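FORM 7B: Structural annotation worksheet

SECTION A. Query
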Amino acid sequence: MATHRLPFEKEIYALEDLLADLEARSAATAGEEIRRLRRETVALKKRIYSELTAWQTVLVARHVERPHTSDYIELMFEEFVELHGDRAIGDDRAIRTGFARLGDFRVMLIGHQKGRTLQDRQACFYGCAHPEGYRKALRCMKIAAKFKVPVVCLIDTPGAYPGIGAEERGQAALIANNLLEMARLETPVVCVVIGEGGSGGALGIGIGDRVSMLEHAYYSVISPEGCAGILWKVGNEETNPLAADALKLTSRHLAKLGVIDDVIPEPLGGAHRDHREMATTLKTYLLRYLRDVRGLAIPELLEARYQKFRRMGVFTRKTPAT
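SECTION B. Predicted structure
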């Protein structure tokens, strides 16, 4: 059971606490009551999590106990060999890269890392990568293409690091270069937003043949707080939810708009409640994607990737009056 409780989960935890108390007492007469409470708890979770607002989805995506890239490495991948450094500045800990085995596939894994402890989070800049992180990611992608190994990208960042040093070292240009290079990378690329998919920080490793999201992740051009700050000059309890609704950043919105290919279901109550179940589900989807693109010739793969992103959006062409 998760220990960090979100505001809209009060009813769920009230029932779970009552259920835990009854189970601890193990009273023979409480058997039917325990079964009833379990049914009520499941029904309540289904109702609440099927009706999440956009802002509540953001809170779930940011849950401190939500599985990170390092958790998926431990639960899903085998023979992980980490690769470090960008061969220019240093090694950005906000992005982890390395060879790994996923089922029958040898892959290049690239993923954002937020860290668990305060010390780790500070070292990883809370998942906000610097230019050297995106340079490292691209270096490893090119190695993958050289050895004809598919790339798997796990996206979980509020955005690229917004500091002066990052801008001085060409943050925007490096992200733009990653978009270009990933669009023409001669190996299959599969991307999944596992938590936060914020702005260019997410797009920097987000161009692929298959782009999907976990059910309660979000993917957006800007954070709700940033959007609220621009529109209303302040981000608070009133404006943040308004911005989240306007951004259409949830998986169901983006699937409807054609921005993503799949919504990957999470365990009841969110991925933070059962890391192992979430990893098993994600592995199933990743293996399916890799099998789908495995047999494509490189020219066919690149053309399909190009057309995938060209099809996004709706355009209206106005014919001049004669």
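SECTION C. Observations
The first strand starts at residue 78 and ends at 83. Residues 26 and 34 are 10 Å apart (CA to CA).

SECTION D. Sign-off
Analyst initials: ____
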